[in-house]
Structure formats: C-alpha cells, structure tokens
Amino acid sequence: MHFKTIFKSIKNKDMLKRVLIILGIIVAYRFLAQIPVPMGDASTFKEAVSNLMQKSDFSNFLNLISGGGLASFSIILVGMSPYITGSIVIQLLTKAIPSLEELSNDGESGRRKINQWTRLLTIPLAIVQSIAYIFILYQSTLSANIASEFTPTFGDWALSVTAMTTGSVLLMWMGELITEQGIGNGISTIIFASIISQLPTTMASLGSALFDTSQGNLSLFGWFELPVNPTVFWIVLGFAIAMLAVIYFLVKLNEAQRIITVNYAKRVHGNSSYGGIKSILPIKLIAAGVIPVIFATAFLSLPALIGQVIMTVDPGNEFGSNLVSLFSAPSANNFSTMYPNGITGQWFVYPAMYFILVFMFTYFYTSIIFNTNEIADNLQKQGGFIEGVRPGINTSKYLSKVVNRLDLFGALALGFIAMLPFITDYIFIVITGAPIGLSISGTGLLIVVTVALENLRSLDSRALMITYDDFGDELKD
Known about the structure:
Strand order of the largest sheet: 6-3-7
Strand content: 5-15%
CATH superfamily of the largest domain: SecY subunit domain
Radius of gyration: 25 Å
Oligomer: single chain
C-alpha cells in the first residue's frame, strides 16, 4: 500500500469527491438504521425483538449484518439480503441459459440489462421477506403477551411492508452508488459498515465485564494488582492474540497472487518499432474476495427464515423446527436447548453446508469476474502472448488451469477461516461442555478484514492513477 500516495491523492478534487460521497452514503445509511418501522408502538416491537434475539442465533446474525436494524426495528431490517439473493439467482440463470450468457458478454449494454433485472427481482424478494419478518415479530409479541391490545389493520401491514421494502431498495441503490465511485464493492462496504457500527456496543459490554472486580483483582506475579476481572482478562488476552494471528493470515491470503509474464510481439511500422516488451498479469489467490462468504450466509439464512415462519404459525410443526435447527449456526445461544445431550451428528450439518457453499461460491464468482476467454482474446488482439503457450484458445485453457488451481487452495483456505469459529466452539464443548459462541463474530471479522483490504487496494489503485495524472500535468507546466 502506498499510504503517502493515498493522502496526496485526497488533494485531487475528483478523488475527494468520491471519498466524501462514500462517507456521506454511510452516514445516511446509519441514519436509516434509526428510523423505526411505522407499525404500532416501536418500543413494543423492540421488546419482542429483544426476546427473539435471546432465543435465536439467526436473529443475532441478522442484527449484525443490518447494523442493528433488527434491534431498533428499523426500516432497513431486511438489509441487503434480497439484493444478494437476486444477484445469486440472476447469475445462476446467466450460467444456465445461453442467451443470458451471450447478453452478459455483450459489453456494457448487456450488463446494464442484467443489472436492471436484478433490481426488479430484488423488489418482490424484499416484499416477501418484509412480510415474513413482521409476521414473526408480531406473533412473538402475542406469544409473549407484550402487545395483546394492538391488532394491525391491512393499512398498517401495507405501510410497514412498503417502508421495509423501500429501505431495502434504498440500500441497494446506496450500494450501487458506492460501487460507481470505483473504491470497493458497494454491497461489501455497507455490510462492513454494519458490522463496524456494532463495535462500540461490543466494546462497552466487554469493558463492563473486564472491569467488574466482584471476583477480585488480577494479580501479576504477586508484584502488583490490576483492577480487572482475572478470568475475563485472560480470555480477552487469548482471543486478542488469536484474532491478531487470524488477521495476519487473512492479510497474507488476500495479498497472495500468481504473476504471469506476458510478452508483446515487436512490430515495425515505417521507421518506428513498437512492442517487444514484457508485462505481468497478476491473478489473485482469492479473486472473489469476501463475496463467497456473504453469498453463503445469505443463502443459508433463507431456509432458517422459512422455518421460523412455519414455527410461528404452527409452533409444533416438525418440518419448521428441522429447518431452523439445520440452518442455524450452532452457538452458545441455542446449544443447551438444541443439544441437551451434547454434540450429535446434527451439530456438524450447518458448518458442513457453510463450508461447501463458501467453496462453491468461490469458484462460481471467480468464473464471473475472471473470464479467461475474454482475457485470452484481448491478449491476442494486443499482440500479447504467454511464453510457451500459443495465443487464443490455448492461452484460455492455460489461464483456466492456473485459476482453477489457485481457486482450489483459495477456496479451501477461505472455507477453513470461515470454519475457525465452529472449530473453536467444538474445542470448548469438549473441554467445558458448552460453546463460547464465536460463530457470528468470526464471520464478522472475516468480512471486516477482507473488505477493508479490498477497499484499501481499490483506493490505492485510484490514488496511483490520479497522482500519475498530476505528475504529467506538472511536466506540461
């Protein structure tokens, strides 16, 4: 990273404008997270949400990626989930239907049409999810006798669903605006901001536990005492060291790349010669970034939501109960109720599905953003070739082989990092009999670190381009 270049580029009006637009969008997003859904008494539903979050690990994760939108019963409660699901569906159809694949390869106009279809698909998905969330929360208030006097009318339902759908569409628009600025992916950046916004609350609760000296002070080798809880201190210290190690590994993993040397044929035009130079084609180990993790999480959240709706309508329904248990991350919140007799084979279902989906989406998304046929055609048109490889289809096959090998290791590494919280939980179950509950925070850490690196890399690339332009202008002057 060229941090001096980044700071220098901020003086450029275009760069400053792009950065301020992104910051402004994030601030507007945080304001939206404080606007409650217009349905009955907001405090009543917040109480119902609090009760639901204590029972459901899925609710806690939804609250995390919505930036506290669930806890505050905000209009952005649905979040980016409909847009992510719509993107997955459209991209799968693009690969399955040849006419759509041709359209996606038809330059900018084709991509605009596909993006427009994704936006249109997002709206019905947002409506369905909004109805499901409100229905679950309303039934939760009834079961807890929190709001027995409130009976929503059709107008209340219509207004609430419209508000939540509008919030989801607004987030989709904000994400696309961020992407247009050329500094990171909009979806990832909004989810990054959501997770970061929860840090102050997490740090406050951690600080209160750390400085709770009801069990005594921490004694260091008998020399002096610190006014902190001894048990919490060593747990925090251990996790801080583990977190630093994981962050270091993530940084190395994101920066890893395979360098392919590209030669350009020498051309003679009149008395001048062109080409005869060498260039590089860097291929990242994980070209898909954090998108596979986001896609896998969104994909697994839908069955859990359907199961929750079924259980809300019919509490004793076995099918709904199985959906919730199979598609909910095992954690400290649900371990004692779902596994009263200890670990069973069912405990491994969610981590296994999560790993498989992360692995599959890594291959899938890489094939979309790194089109080997298109790259091989561009190299051939520019007179470039890889040493020992014939231009054209042979170059495409060679690049596909390289990318597949990188994807194999990258997908395994990304899946392993996604599994670390579950591995930690398993170790604590064996030692103490209960998990420590790091599944959500582990996924959040993975998203935060990866998105931060991607955005820094994008910012660095644009800063280098801008400073080169400024340097050229100085030479002209």
